[in-house]
Amino acid sequence: MRALRAAFPDAILRGEQCWGDTTVFLARPRVAEVLQWLRDDPQARYEYLVDITAVEYRDAGRPLEVVWHVRSLAYRRFLRLKLELDPSLPLEVPSAIGVWRSADWLERECYDMFGITFTGHPDLRRILMWESYAEGHPLRKDFPLRGRFSRSEQLSQALRANPEAHYSMTELSIAEAYGDITPEMRARLDAGAKVGE
Q1: Domain span including residue 167
Q2: Whole-structure pTM over 0.90, yes or no?
Q3: How many whole angstroms separate alpha carbon 154 and alpha carbon 130?
Q4: Helices H, strands E: what count in the chain?
Q5: Residues 95, 19: one domain?
Q6: For a tag site, which of 32, 49, 79, 142 has the least CB within 10 Å?
Q7: 32/36 Cα distance (integer angstroms)
Q8: Domain shared by 119 and 43, yes or no
């Protein structure tokens, strides 16, 4: 943490050590630079992005936190990075996809469940809930335990959804390689139909 604080004195708000784990709280303007440095600096080498998630506390006065878990395999170190977001402001964070390609689906999950926008993400869309899901973000504290609609309305929406319309051509090409798409979808693709646009 000393090397990180020396490299970015204005980007490190505070650090904590608990049970051998280090947690560093970052300032929003320099998040992208810090993530890049952690991967590229020869003394850091945090080349493995383990997870990206978020935490929203019950106390309305506490900020929402975006959390990155990174690991340096070369040095056998684990680091937790946190960025605090004011829930009353737009929930936007720079995407880490340019640093770790594995951030792709992790950021999409965080967007889907918490509503956090990762700016610069090339394909930020829902990954766990269907695209037309209109009830909000299920892991936010303001989300009702039973959802905003009745179970029958949720089922009706799910049945009306056309999941094939939201796949990219790359995803369909991969699915086609395994024979997982329906014959009618294969005929539409063969005829040159554009899907998901």
Answers
A1: 162-197
A2: no
A3: 11
A4: 6, 7
A5: yes
A6: 142
A7: 6
A8: yes
